[in-house]
Amino acid sequence: MNNHLTISSYAGKYDIRMCDDIPRALKHAVSGPVHILADRYIWKNYRGQFRDLPNVRTTHILDAVEKNKTLDRAVTYVKFLLGQGIRKNHTILVAGGGQIQDIGSFAAHILLRGVPWVFVPTTLLAMADSCIGSKSALNVGKYKNQVGAFWPPSHVLIFPKFCKTLPESAVRDGKGEILKHALIGGGSTFKRLTGLLPKIPKNQTALTRIIIESLLIKKQIIEKDEFDRDTRKILNYGHTFGHALEGYTHTAVAHGTAVTIGMDMANFISVRRGLLPQKEFDMISTVLHGNIPYDTLPVRSIPLYMKYLSRDKKMTGDTVTALLCRGIGRVVQVPLKLDKQLAGDIDDYRKYYRRQRKLNL
Ligand SMILES: NC(=O)c1ccc[n+]([C@@H]2O[C@H](COP(=O)([O-])OP(=O)(O)OC[C@H]3O[C@@H](n4cnc5c(N)ncnc54)[C@H](O)[C@@H]3O)[C@@H](O)[C@H]2O)c1
Ligand SMILES: [Zn+2]
């Protein structure tokens, strides 16, 4: 399998490279004056990998915490770079996970109407998912992810080695999105990816392969609909029910777990609506439950969960546009009324989940 792929975007083509030798790859990909924006953990633990970069003008370190992923923080960074004399021919080198990516790519987009940026993703989620697709999303006050832009990087350099230090929850976050791509991708992709999944992040060969395959599935979708007008919406699979679960539990259930449960729930409802055969549901559900920590509690209050569901961005009136599943490789958009029937289905899912996890609740 090729260790390199190219993405076509409205702003031109950009390439993704899987690399071993960090200093060497950086030297090749980045030229001219550079401004580094890095995750504090990465800077503390991997700083030496960036030492050979010539012509570094500024270095800015940020904590990857949700309260930093704001429009204000991005504007502060923009002001800092302007104060340091950034020019259109400079490059911003962003090293971190999705949060640092969101701040860096948004700042690069609004500065001088677009400064090139190079991305070094350091989490599994950023490597296998967010590094392509051009999107950024920032919080403004209480509004989460409501400000953003489409500004692709000029290069993405992936060093799977960074995954060695990821905490288990961050690995699960990445696996949640990989499972989503696997289910969207179709039968043989699903088989291959789910076969490799238990081997990562330890096995570097499996890890490299999974990252490339996951990106190849997303590539096919974003190249058809970069601006999220139609086809790209299927990447929200598992997210409608997942976000409501994150809200309901005040993020005690982490994103990757919530998306995994969200897909299982969407599939359960798909069976109820006659879209997905029970046998296929059972097979997929067994795989999905492998990415849910043993002690994750189910939803208890259905009315409260429905309230969180009704806050979804894709609501019109009393109907949400949900992503349901007709089979592996066949995720479809379906309008779902937030009515008694749906509440009943979710309650039945709660009972199913409880039995599946053998939880006595
Ligand atoms: N722009 C997009 O397309 C897009 C897509 C999906 C998610 N996101 C955003 O990404 C964010 C989640 O990003 P994420 O899951 O990549 O992680 P993150 O950026 O939130 O970082 C999670 C934690 O991992 C640490 N970390 C980073 N790399 C590490 C490493 N190699 N070893 C050990 N620790 C490391 C960070 O310091 C942080 O504590 C959310 O804010 C989400 O909204 C953006
Ligand atoms: Zn997600």
Explain what you see.
β10 and β11 form a beta hairpin. The chain is an alpha/beta fold. It is built from 13 helices and twelve strands. The protein has a seven-stranded mixed sheet with strand order 1-2-9-6-5-3-4, sandwiched between helices. Strands 10-11-12 form a three-stranded antiparallel sheet, with helices on one face. Strands 7-8 form a two-stranded antiparallel sheet. It binds nicotinamide-adenine-dinucleotide and zinc ion (ZN).
Summarize the structure.
The chain is of the alpha/beta class and 361 residues long. The chain has helices at 22-29, 40-46, 71-83, 98-110, 124-130, 168-185, 187-196, 204-224, 239-248, 255-272, 278-289, 302-309, 340-357, and strands spanning 4-9, 12-18, 34-39, 56-62, 91-96, 117-121, 138-140, 143-147, 155-158, 315-316, 319-325, 331-337. The chain binds nicotinamide-adenine-dinucleotide and zinc ion.
Keywords:
alpha/beta; 45% helix; binds nicotinamide-adenine-dinucleotide
Bound molecules: nicotinamide-adenine-dinucleotide, zinc ion
As residue ranges, the low-confidence spans are: none
Order of helices and strands: EEHEHEHEHEHEEEHHHHHHHEEEH
Strand segment count: 12
Briefly note the structural class of the backbone. alpha/beta
Mean pLDDT: 95
Report the total helices.
13
Shape: globular
Rg on CA atoms, Å: 21 Å
Proportion in β-strands:
15-25%
The end-to-end distance, rounded to whole angstroms, is 47 Å
